[in-house]
């Protein structure tokens, strides 16, 4: 289902992947610095989750400024929260690369405003912890303030997220957290000798099982 979400004096293009059965939870997905909501990894993940009962809303927001992307993301969260068509008890924010930074920033803002009951967790695909070859400047400020569960899916050879550095940051986080390393994958999640479909299947199953665990915990 294609929708246009009002954002300032413009609209954000978005697509709902709607499960066949009754749904209680949703995931909002967005892309990295390049590309849009039709980035193959996001399309694959949305289809996989929707086929297993999780509503997915993915959206496009062009713009290389993280604060701008976070404002857009916040607008999408509000839109879904107030939606009459889909009554959800909670939502997980997810993004690829820069999109995951924007998602982390939104969660930090909403928790500061005391308005984060709707948000159940964060999924970071290829979180860009630092620029290539610039390991001294870490983009970890939002992560350290987050309290909801966080899943990182990163390539062990990601040139924007050195393995040891992410493990160090995660060890300081207060939130329940998990890292799933895709062996030998780079920032784009490509691995020599493995097909794209094979890697996407690994990512999708990891994300879905983590979501299921966290949804079940919340209902206990």
Automatic annotation (TrEMBL):
Domain KANL3/Tex30 alpha/beta hydrolase-like per the UniProt entry, residue ranges: 27-207
Coiled-coil residue windows: none
Domain of life: Eukaryota
Listed Gene3D superfamilies: alpha/beta hydrolase (3.40.50.1820)
Family matches, as InterPro entries: AB_hydrolase_fold, KANL3/Tex30_Abhydrolase, NSL3/Tex30
Alphabetical list of PANTHER family matching this protein: TESTIS DEVELOPMENT PROTEIN PRTD, TESTIS-EXPRESSED PROTEIN 30
Protein name: TEX30 protein
């Amino acid at each position: 289902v294609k929708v246009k979400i009002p954002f300032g004096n413009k609209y954000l293009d978005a697509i709902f992947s709607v499960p066949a059965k009754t749904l209680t939870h949703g995931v909002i997905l967005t892309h990295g610095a390049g590309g849009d909501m039709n980035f193959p990894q996001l399309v694959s993940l949305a289809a996989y989750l929707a086929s297993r009962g999780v509503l997915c809303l993915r959206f496009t927001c062009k713009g290389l400024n993280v604060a701008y992307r976070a404002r857009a993301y916040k607008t999408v969260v509000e839109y879904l929260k107030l939606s009459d068509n889909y009554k959800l008890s909670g939502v997980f924010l997810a993004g690829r690369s820069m999109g995951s930074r924007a998602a982390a920033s939104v969660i930090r803002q909403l928790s500061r405003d005391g308005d984060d009951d709707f948000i159940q967790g964060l999924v970071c695909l290829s979180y860009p912890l630092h620029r290539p070859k610039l390991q001294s400047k870490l983009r970890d400020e939002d992560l350290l303030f987050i309290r909801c569960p966080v899943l990182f899916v990163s390539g062990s050879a990601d040139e924007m997220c050195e393995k040891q550095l992410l493990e160090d940051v995660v060890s300081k986080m207060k939130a329940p957290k998990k890292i799933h390393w895709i062996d030998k994958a780079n920032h784009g999640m490509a691995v020599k000798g493995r097909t794209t479909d094979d890697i996407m299947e690994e990512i999708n199953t990891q994300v879905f099982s983590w979501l299921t665990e966290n949804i079940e915990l919340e209902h206990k």
